[in-house]
Design brief:
This protein has 16 helices and 17 strands. The chain is α+β, with helices and mostly antiparallel strands and 430 residues long.
């Protein structure tokens, strides 16, 4: 009976790249890790799978339709859907062994069982940096916001961060209604719905014409701290005043940190209810139409489901999978000219062993060398070198083996010269 071949299909919405793209993606991750570590954040890697009672704690144990959940033996398990809940579990479980404020970064895959579409995946990478501690200073809010600039700079992009404070709108709505959470949810839709529809939603929640007019003035405020402070007289509410005070303080810290690419946008509330103060979203400067590439904010009680001690936190996140997907779709990734090889070696059967020895010598000296040793003609090997975008090519013949000098060809300029191994090594490292 003939074996039936299995179609090599991939689950829709799961992340998989071609080797050249994967190399560029890994390079992006490496650059981001360097930024986080330069800013004194420590690496953390939590398990992809957690007990369901851990991941579902903040939803009261209800099964979220987007969560991948399964059982193995008697264990009820979920795949993590973000990196924040595992962080809370880690901090609570290792509280006595950690030094606070605890600054950690994590880059890892998360899973959400939603319908795959443009910019949305079932498996994707999150890239988070958080600071956790008791009575956490607002300097860390500014520090997390500032992180976007060096992160984006490493990726040859400019960041633009839009900032607000949830206390401003929460305090304003406290004076108008007992439906504060519902009203904040409407504000979160400002960029997604027409203005008229937003106004109608406010009407449905019982706001008067005057209330709506003031609300629209607040949430349409975009600019520097002076424009935000001009709204101070609009609301005599302690929560509102606290939010204004915090924004002013964060602004002072941002200026001290040399932050330049930011503005205040009071329509930003971030959908997650655990945010309690500063909130922010990051865009590619001049490309706001691409949507937010990252975001974050302040939360007052990260570990409330796991410990009695109140742990404050502030964190930033970059949607690195989404960013890579945008750059790929906009043809902003240079995969055509990418190569994982720094020098190729052309040799022939009779001196193949010499070629292998030379290749190994390069590798031991930190040079990415590969040998083109398939049984092909010299012309075919040159075509292969061009196809693989090799920057340099070493041509190894019997004369080169005897003299220990080698023909090195610059594949971009066409220049060719005779050099010793040490001279080639120096040239490549330069």
């Amino acid at each position: 009976m003939e074996n039936k071949l299995i179609t090599p299909k991939k689950i829709q919405g799961f992340w998989e790249l071609m080797p050249k793209e994967e190399a560029l993606f890994e390079n992006m991750l490496s650059r981001l890790r360097k930024v986080f570590e330069n800013n004194c954040f420590q690496p953390l890697d939590t398990p992809v799978a957690e007990f369901s009672e851990i991941l579902l704690a903040k939803s009261g144990g209800d099964v979220d339709k987007e969560i991948y959940r399964f059982t193995k033996g008697h264990a009820d398990i979920c795949l993590r859907y973000d990196l924040t809940v595992p962080l809370a579990r880690f901090v609570a479980g290792n509280y006595n062994m950690l030094e606070f404020p605890f600054k950690r970064y994590q880059i890892g895959k998360v899973y959400r069982g939603e319908r795959p579409q443009k910019g949305r995946f079932r498996e994707f990478y999150q890239c988070d940096a958080d600071v956790i501690g008791e009575n956490l200073s607002l300097t860390y809010d500014a520090e997390c916001i500032k992180l976007y600039e060096p992160c984006f700079k490493e990726l040859h992009l400019d960041a633009m961060v839009e900032i607000s404070n949830r206390k401003l709108l929460a305090g304003f709505f406290e004076n108008l209604s007992d439906k504060v959470v519902e009203l904040m949810t409407i504000v979160d839709k400002v960029d997604k719905l027409p203005k008229e529809e937003i106004i109608n939603l406010f009407k449905e929640k019982g706001l008067t014409f005057d209330d709506i007019e003031k609300t629209m003035k607040i949430i349409s405020t975009k600019g520097d701290i002076k424009e935000v402070k001009a709204l101070s007289a609009m609301c005599d509410n302690d929560t509102f005043k606290k939010g204004m005070e915090e924004l002013e303080t964060v602004d002072e810290y941002l200026k001290a940190l040399g932050m330049t690419n930011y503005l205040y946008n009071l329509s930003i509330v971030r959908g997650h209810d655990y945010y309690t103060g500063t909130v922010f979203e990051c865009y590619i400067k001049g490309k706001r139409s691409f949507g937010a590439i990252g975001g974050g904010g302040r939360y007052d009680n990260l570990c409330k489901n796991f410990m009695e001690t109140k742990m404050e936190g502030v964190g930033m996140s970059i949607g690195i999978t989404r960013l890579f997907d945008i750059l790929r779709n906009e043809n902003l990734l240079n995969t055509e000219n990418y190569t994982s090889i720094e020098i190729g070696i052309i040799t022939f059967d009779e001196i193949l062993l010499n070629g292998l020895t030379l290749m190994n010598k390069f590798r031991e000296n930190g040079v990415k060398a590969d040998i083109l040793n398939e049984n092909k003609s010299f012309k075919a090997k040159m075509k292969e070198a061009n196809r693989r975008n090799l920057p340099f090519l070493l041509i190894l013949g019997e004369d080169e083996v005897k003299s220990s000098t080698y023909s090195l060809k610059n594949m971009q300029t066409g220049e060719q010269e005779k050099l010793t191994f040490e001279e080639i090594l120096e040239k490549l490292k330069d």
